[in-house]
Amino acid sequence: MEFSAEMIAGLIGGTVVGDPKTAVNNFARIEEGKPGCISFLANPKYEHYVYTTESSIILVNDTFTPTQEIKATLIKVPNAREAVAKLITIYDSMKPKKTGIDSTAYIDPTAKVGENVYLGPFVAIGPHAEVGDGCVLHPHATVGERAKIGTNTVMYSNSVVYHDCIVGNNCILHAGCVIGADGFGFEPTENGYEKIPQIGNAILEDNVEVGANSCVDRAVMGSTIIRKGVKLDNLVQIGHNCEVGSHTVMSAQVGVAGSTKIGEWCMFGGQAGISGHATIANRTMAGAQSGIPNTIKKEGTAIQGSPAIEARNFWKSSAIFKNLPDMWSDMNQMKKEIKALKEALEAKS
Predict the structure, then answer these.
(1) pTM score, two decimals?
(2) Residue 330: what are its φ and ψ, rounded to 5°?
(3) DSSP labels for 266-319?
(4) Which of 93, 216, 231, 341 has the CA that lies 20 to 30 A from 252?
């Protein structure tokens, strides 16, 4: 597929600076640009590549003013990063969609499978399960008994939706992720830990994406709920009976202990951990490796550290922490000097 600069500008509401007939058929990072590719500039640190890249078209912000001659055709837009994301989405949607059911796929006679679906080799659909129209299930994806998958959802290889769980429309489950495994529920007894049956389920609302090898545990009773638009990176763990608010995002290796309620539009950096039974306010931002031991009540709070504290205080404390050895040495020296002064004063008296 090939697109001209004027066609692209029309799709994203941009203004062409240069030859409107310039054509491209692929994307490239600006530092790796090649003829026939489109790149973008959003970070000023990469501006020098604008003047050297071989890309044919570059998306730039409206505010960009070149300081040297540019060989490429520019398309100016209000936000270059958003524009390229929109273009990639359009490009991806134009790719032919897989359909058909492989001969090795297993569909229980009581299951319901919609129209225009793709079921790859060794896909398994359990008893009374439902798979909606337009779904794409790659090899070895598994849908458990009575589980329901909405329309246009994609399950990559070896992803699993356990029995009774529900996945909404337009979701993406990456390879190896597990929706609805048992929550970590055990009762200590004299003879060891007795398993507490996890008889609830897990629910993913529409437009949720779950990364590779991530897990959303089923509830003890009731439901673990991932609200619409949530994006979970790879290796994320959501414990039983949690609720994650709409449009919240979590980077790799975030862990959320059971019965925690997280608000909307929150952001969690890699390896952040949240203790059980906490409530996290809307739009909370937690930096990487934050350890959150209890409830956060104020919306829009930015935190860092373990145990997590307000982000500005954390950075101030970090600046002091690295100077502690010198401060300790200075303090000991001052103690010696104070002691010597006291002894001198006592001797005079």
Answers:
(1) 0.84
(2) -60, -40
(3) -EE-TT-EE-TT-EE-TT-EE-TT-EE-S-B-STT-EEETTTTEEHHHHHHHHH
(4) 93
Q: Could you give the C-alpha distances from 239 to 19, 48, 221, in angstroms and in order?
A: 54, 46, 13
Tokens 């309620």 locate to 261
Same domain as 192, residue 296: yes
CB 118 within 8 A of CB 136: yes
Out of 138, 140, 174, 240, pick the active-site residue: 240
Give the domain CATH number at 33. 3.40.1390.10
Contact 162, 144 (CB under 8 A): yes
User: What is the rounded CA–CA span in Å between residue 126 and residue 145?
Assistant: 5
321 φ, ψ (degrees, to nearest 5)? -55, -45
**208-241, pLDDT tens digit by residue?**
999 999 999 999 999 999 999 999 999 999 999 9
Residues 212, 230: Cα–Cα separation, whole Å: 15
Per-residue pLDDT tens digits for 94-136: 888 888 999 999 999 999 999 999 999 999 999 999 999 999 9
Q: Is 240 a catalytic residue?
A: yes
Whether 16 maps to a domain, the answer reads yes
Question: Is 347 inside any structural domain?
Answer: no
